[in-house]
Specification:
Number of strands: 4
Number of helices: 4
Structural class: alpha+beta
CATH architecture: 2-Layer Sandwich
Strand content: 15-25%
Largest sheet: 4 strands, mixed
CATH topology: Ribosomal Protein S5, domain 2
Distance between the termini: 37 Å
Radius of gyration: 15 Å
Length: 136
RNA sequence: AACAGCAGUUGUUCCGUCGCUGCUCCCGCAAGGGAGGAGAGGAAAGUCCGGGCAACACAGAGCACCGUGCUUCUUAACAGGAAGGGGCUCGCAAGGGUCACGGCAAGUGCCACAGAAAAGAUACCGCCUGCUUCGGCAGGUAAGGGUGAAAACGCGAGGUAAGAGCUCACGACGCCGUCAGUGAUGCCGGCGAUGGUAAACCCCACGGGUUGAAAAACCAAAUAAACCGAGGCUUGAGGGUUGCUCGCCCAACUCGGAGGGUAGGUCGAUUGAGACGGCCGGCGACGGUCGUCCUAGAUAAAUGACGGAACUGGCGCAAACCAGACAGAACCCGGCUUACAGACUGCUGUUUUUU
RNA sequence: GGCCUCGUAGCUCAAUUGAAUAGAGCAUUUGACUACGGAUCAAAAGGUUGCAGGUUUGAAUCCCGCCGGGGUCA
């Protein structure tokens, strides 16, 4: 099984890397720190690493207003998560490890139509690199 | 063979790499890791009905409200389904389609405009009889005209001054009786009433307690106030006891406990009115019995991404290119409704060709 | 996931006990008034009553099925 990753890490995206707490979401939205990169609006926050939390966490949301069918919303969320899974080891984790922080990221899909996977992947890379600039 | 209708089945497949969520086994103190195997639908949708399950309420009965409405059967139950009856309708016929299909002969209401009159009848024109000052007046009548969506059962004959269910035959309708049928109902006989409207109020029959998994149950941080137990030593401060001080008590304060149950977690929650197959009963829906199988269980919510190949379609030979329906479980079932490219099967009808 | 409500001119609302031309204000257009504009006056246009069926002589209204919007349950 060839491991192509430079850090020799598996490209995982398990439940620990997701935001599941309602309180966490509300805190995140109250900070009102956001960047915009079509088709994503991204709320974010950085907290110091603790024993309980040592990884970056992410949440994807697609409004029902723009996509009426559950099939479409599921597809966007899956594409977004897949792009994050493949890219966050390279573009986000080294920077946060350097600062000993971990990030909460709320990705809000504000586009009106479903984009193909390679476009979404490029946009996710852009979002992650801009987040890294916010760190500096 | 083509086309059309109806009914039913199916609704892309395979390989590689990287992932996600449960389950089983193994390693590990743990975090986690490894292996194996599983992982969206016929509608998962709409939430339109009916249940299971749960909490609360409840002696019994009635009223109100809501729903259903030909009959019999089916079922856990239903506004579903099956078979049958009746009306309407398509058709030469065979046969098919469709129906909120109990009751306006229990009561009340409504029926605009037009029209004499829209329902206890009435009388504009007309018809007939009588009177007449020849202008009409009085009476009878509802056959005809006209109005309207609808006109006092329809139509023919008798009858009459003219007429009239006034009488009779046939026909539409209700009730009763005989016969057939489990029954709706049908045949025959007798009696009887007559506008429509109950998706108008209402009457009759039957059914419905309310609220829904954000239900319910269990574990249980932090914090506030109240309670219980122990302490409450020195100094200072509050209240009571006392004229005052000391003392004592309360209380502040400290520690512990129990209680309720918020954040959070567990459960509910996936073995069930289960699926598949055989046999038996039934016209059928469906039921009985035997055997085999275990077939998603997430919880801010898994079932995905990329690449390759095949298949189908755009398209008439090939290649290239493009596309692959409707749509995503949220406690679980039975139905209904709505969406749906294509493929396949069966039956029926029409047309053409061949024998 | 469950439940409740509402869809009428471009906008805000009537008509809702079925009754025949669906009405009012603002906005739009035209004309008058004015040197011009505003205000005012007069007139016009604008509606598949969300869509599709049914009941009825007749439906915005009654019934049924869809579609869309809003609200509510921690």
């Amino acid at each position: 099984m060839p491991q192509e990753n430079a850090n020799n890490q598996r490209l995982t995206f398990s439940k620990r890397e997701r935001i599941c707490s309602r309180l966490q979401i509300e805190n995140l939205l109250q900070k009102k720190q956001s960047i915009f990169c079509y088709p994503f609006k991204c709320y974010y926050d950085f907290t110091p690493k603790t024993e309980e939390r040592a990884v970056n966490q992410i949440l994807v949301s697609v409004p029902k207003r723009n996509f009426k069918h559950a099939v479409e919303r599921n597809r966007i969320k899956r594409l977004t998560r897949e792009a994050y899974r493949l890219q966050h080891r390279r573009h986000l984790d080294p920077k946060t490890d350097e600062k000993n922080l971990c990030a909460d990221i709320f990705l809000f899909y504000v586009g009106k139509e479903i984009l193909p996977y390679n476009l979404i992947e490029n946009k996710i890379i852009e979002v992650l690199s801009r987040l890294c600039k916010q760190l500096l």
